[in-house]
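Students often ask why inverse folding is considered easier than folding. One informal answer: many sequences map to the same fold, so there is more than one right answer. In these notes we will look at a single instance of the problem. The structure comes first.
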């Protein structure tokens, strides 16, 4: 079964530059998380094709390969134990992570409208444009609103609020750089509220971006060993 810290980091990548579509991209990812005074680190190399196939090769804290696509076909291979787990769920699709919308050049709502959220208000504060979104019915019992703040065209904050108006998940995007012709946040900090006294603070950094011929195909074409043990 996939550990929560890996699922939280799941994301997909599509690059557009004017009329040109990159066929393959890759990047290095490192995430450091803090909870109850304890630190953890995750490192991975991420590979993506324009058809929506993604390979995430984690090396720290364990060597695991995650393969998924736009259909939600999801495979996790554990190199050390030679085990494989597979499932299909659109929530695990390579299109469902917020970073997909940055690299699809759709930074306006970070996919909120696609998820059923409705724009209710636009306001300006301290030089930022803030949009307020109301949730679809199936999420309304847990979420009262979502706020997105833009500095010019770049999202700098995404916040989910509960029914009491308290932020339960806050994401900050910064250190924007030009990546394949698009502005991309190479640093992302997320604060997730677990309960009134506990939260997880994570900082993710992306680097070493490559495209097309520079991308190593090894993990994009990786074949799960025939003798791998299938687990539920």
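Output (designed amino acids):
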């Amino acid at each position: 079964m996939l550990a929560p810290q890996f699922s939280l980091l799941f994301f997909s990548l599509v690059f557009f530059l004017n009329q040109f579509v990159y066929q393959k991209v890759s990047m290095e990812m490192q995430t450091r998380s803090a909870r109850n005074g304890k630190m953890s680190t995750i490192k991975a190399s991420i590979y993506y094709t324009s058809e929506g196939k993604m390979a995430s090769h984690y090396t720290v804290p364990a060597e695991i390969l995650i393969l998924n696509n736009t259909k939600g076909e999801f495979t996790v291979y554990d190199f050390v134990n030679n085990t494989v787990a597979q499932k299909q769920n659109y929530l695990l699709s390579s299109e469902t992570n917020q970073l997909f919308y940055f690299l699809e050049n759709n930074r306006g709502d970070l996919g909120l409208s696609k998820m059923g959220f409705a724009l209710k208000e636009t306001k300006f504060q301290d030089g930022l444009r803030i949009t307020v979104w109301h949730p679809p019915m199936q999420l309304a019992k847990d979420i009262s609103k979502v706020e997105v703040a833009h500095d010019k065209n770049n999202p700098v904050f995404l916040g989910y609020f509960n029914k009491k108006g308290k932020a339960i998940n806050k994401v900050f995007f910064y250190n924007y750089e030009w990546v394949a012709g698009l502005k991309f946040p190479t640093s992302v900090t997320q604060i997730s509220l677990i309960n009134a006294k506990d939260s997880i603070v994570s900082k993710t950094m992306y680097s070493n971006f490559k495209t097309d011929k520079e991308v190593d195909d090894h993990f994009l074409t990786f074949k799960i060993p025939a003798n791998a043990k299938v687990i539920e």
